[in-house]
Amino acid sequence: MAKKVLVSGGAGYIGSHVTVELISAGYDVVVADNLSNCDMTCFDGVKKITGRDDIPFYQIDCCDYDAVDTLFTEHKIDAVIHFAAFKAVGESVAKPIKYYRNNLVSFLNILEVSKNHGGCNVLFSSSATVYGEAEVLPVTEQTPRLPATSPYGNTKQMCEDILRDVVKATASSSEEIRGIALRYFNPIGAHPSALIGELPRGVPNNLVPFITQTAIGKRECLSIFGNDYPTEDGTCLRDYIDVVDLAKAHVAAVTRMLGGKMKENYEIFNIGTGRPVSVYELVTAFEKVNGLKLNYKFVDRRPGDVTAIWADTTLANEELGWKAERSVEETLASAWAWERNL
Known about the structure:
The protein is built from eleven helices and 13 strands. It is α/β, with parallel strands linked by helices. The strands form four sheets. It has a seven-stranded parallel sheet, with helices on both faces. A two-stranded parallel sheet has the order 7-10. The relative contact order is 0.15. The mean pLDDT is 96.
């Protein structure tokens, strides 16, 4: 009997790619999404890629406890991958209450319902933002978490702590929760089929959809936030990971949990490439790979952005048996193919 995985926020960018990889790996998947930051485009793409028209879909808000409880009553859930959160760093600085309410309440509901239905395996979608402005790079899982530079980053830190405490409190009980937090870096790109990719509502907050929308003419000009950082070209350094590679890491983590391979009941893994790439490098790489010239300008720094962050991925490579494989060039080509397909 196939194990059943709930993907909350599963109609979104990362959730849709993870759903494809879970189904490919033989899992049954249930998707829940309130469609606040996406439409059904990617979910429809998932059905086309997998050839599955029967994927259960619940249009619910995970902040609604009763709706989450009903879903767990209707399905025997073996593991949850929780993506249902607001994720724009800049917006979180301007609207902290919105971020704290949504990101914390939705996760608390998932945990409480999981516990009340006899325990579960919970994979939390965390982020490199938990490291703040790290003093030593690359960051390992032992790197101290510094104060978050945004409410968004703070919700990720708080949810990690909540998961750790719930795992500890339920250990060896009939309501045992086991947890893994995947701290990932900057997901970019799209599925090779060009049937799913990043499709934000309104003005994109992430770099690559802004690049592709500028390239295709939806946006007049790409703004690069800050060229006065203490880096080689003055722009921020990030660890850009292909979204399909990222999705495969989730499958490896779920398989670890469900296969009883965890060494602790709560584990943390960095999911990145281990290679820093500057924002300016990424923009020029996109131009080169796709034979395009972009209209861009440098503007002031954006609140909440750190100068540089990239991962040491040794632990994930060794423990999960996972490694990022796709090159930045392949990833940027896939992002452009997705934008053109739209």
